[in-house]
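Checklist before submission:
- one chain only
- standard amino acids only
- sequence pasted in full

Submission:
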Amino acid sequence: MNTKTIFLFLFLITTFKIFAYPIEPRPLRKLIIESENIVYAKVKDIKENKLAKPSDWNNSHIAILVIQEVLQGKLNTQTIEVYFSPEFSCPMPAHYKKGTTVLAFLDKNKDEEGYKTHALSYGAKILKKEKYSIYKNRIIEMQKILEIKDENEKKIKTTDWLVDCSLDPVTREEGIFDLTSNTNFMYFAEDTNKKPTYEFELNEIQKNKLRAAFFAAKKIDTLDLEMVDLVKKENDKELLDFLILNFKKQNEKENVGDQFMMMKIADLTNRNDLKQIIKKSYDTEIFDKDYFKIQKQIVKEFVSKL
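Returned file contents:
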């Protein structure tokens, strides 16, 4: 991870703190429930919306989509116009690029022609055919689950579906985020004492499947770390040793510490001294000219305590 990447990551964290999650994240399950239309389409062209007003921040451009398949809703034409903005802003709008194929979750514009992307950037996923096929199967499965009348059965089937999503690298984010919707990194970044709450409770078989997937990961990233609270056991030395080993390897190679992994290690050890070191990391101003030097020193101190 180079300095530019690290700075961008830290900037985004700061931005999230300022804007406090402008919209609630939408994993696949919620997109299916909420969206009027779901289509797989090719972006034929992008054009400026010459009728857009300065206040129409999310309508400055129009993506011309040629529909290849409709998975939800009824569209009477093969070509549709989707209004969007190519600018980077907060909240982040959906992005469309000419020549790409996209899985789009769309709502009809109420007072205007065309469509808008549901849930902004969450509702447009650039996918090649192989990955789209996996998403398509998951969408069809969830649509069938939503038809179940018995609420208890529906919840059991939904939990199974989320675990299946989590086990597949292509849809892992969709499953993990829904399973850990109240335990994610930004939610706990400033308060490691918050206790996680779950909408979907996992049984032991499901936990063991996720645990096996976690230990099979070649490199632990932030998404994988979201699984820790789902798979950890009481006094889980195996999990702790695995995290420490990966943290040390990462630090040796990239010379930078993963604050989220540090936080998970501190939680598993329940050591206040490690939590205080992490606090120093978060308390450091990112615009300090010695920021990266300070962070390296903090990571070195953290490693020395393990």
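Reviewer check: Residues 28 and 213 are 20 Å apart (CA to CA).
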